[in-house]
C-alpha cells in the first residue's frame, strides 16, 4: 500500500500538461514510466541519445520511442525540449544570467538554437520572457 501512496505523490507532482497516461495500451509500464521521467528530469540539460533513454527501461530504441509516445503523448525529444524550455523560462524570469549562459545550462547547443526553439514553441524570444512581454503574434 505504501507504493500506491508513493505513486500518487509522484504523479501529483507532475505538471498536468506533462502527466503520463498510466497503463496506456502499448505504452510503458508504471515502473518504467517513473524511471524514465525521473531520469529525464535529472539529465535533460545534457545531450541524451534515444538509446540511453531506452536503456533505462531495458528496451530497444524503437520500442522505447513508440511506448514513450503512447505514454507521454509526445516524442522523447519533444518531452526533453519542454523540460529545457521550462528551465530556461524560469531562469530568464528569476535570474540575471546571460541568455547564452541560460541556453548552455538548459541544454541547448547554442544561444541561436535556444532562441529559435523558444520562438517556435513558446512564440516569444528569450528577451521577451525576461522582460515579461507578450508575443506580438495576434491571437496568442
How does this model look, in words?
The protein is mostly helical and 140 residues long. It folds into two domains: 72 residues, no CATH class; 52 residues, Arc Repressor Mutant, subunit A (Orthogonal Bundle), CATH 1.10.10.60. The chain is built from eight helices and no strands. Helix 2 packs across helix 3, helix 5 runs antiparallel to helix 6 and helix 6 crosses helix 7. It is elongated.
Helix and strand layout, with pairings?
Blueprint lengths: L1 H12 L16 H14 L6 H8 L3 H12 L3 H19 L4 H8 L4 H12 L3 H6 L9
Key terms:
140 residues, mainly alpha, Arc Repressor Mutant, subunit A, 2 domains, 8 helices, elongated
Q: Biggest sheet, open or closed, and with what strands and sense?
A: none
What integer value in Å does the Rg equal? 17 Å
**Integer count of domains:** 2
Low-pLDDT sequence parts: none
The pLDDT mean sits at: 85
- H/E series, N to C? HHHHHHHH
Helix count equals: 8
Number of strands: 0
The shape, in one word, is elongated
Tell me briefly what this model is.
The protein has 140 residues and is mostly helical. It is built from eight helices and no strands. The chain is elongated.
Amino acid at each position: 500500500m505504501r507504493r500506491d501512496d508513493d505513486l500518487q505523490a509522484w504523479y501529483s507532482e507532475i505538471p498536468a500538461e506533462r502527466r503520463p497516461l498510466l497503463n496506456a495500451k502499448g505504452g510503458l509500464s508504471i515502473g518504467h514510466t517513473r524511471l524514465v521521467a525521473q531520469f529525464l528530469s535529472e539529465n535533460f540539460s545534457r545531450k541524451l541519445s534515444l538509446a540511453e533513454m531506452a536503456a533505462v527501461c531495458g528496451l530497444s530504441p524503437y520500442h522505447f520511442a513508440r511506448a514513450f509516445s503512447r505514454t507521454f503523448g509526445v516524442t522523447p525529444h519533444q518531452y526533453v525540449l519542454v523540460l529545457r524550455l521550462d528551465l530556461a523560462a524560469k531562469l530568464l524570469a528569476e535570474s540575471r544570467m546571460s541568455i547564452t549562459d541560460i541556453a548552455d545550462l538548459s541544454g541547448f547547443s547554442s544561444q541561436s538554437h535556444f532562441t529559435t526553439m523558444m520562438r517556435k514553441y513558446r512564440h516569444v524570444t528569450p528577451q521577451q520572457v525576461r522582460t515579461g512581454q507578450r508575443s506580438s503574434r495576434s491571437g496568442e
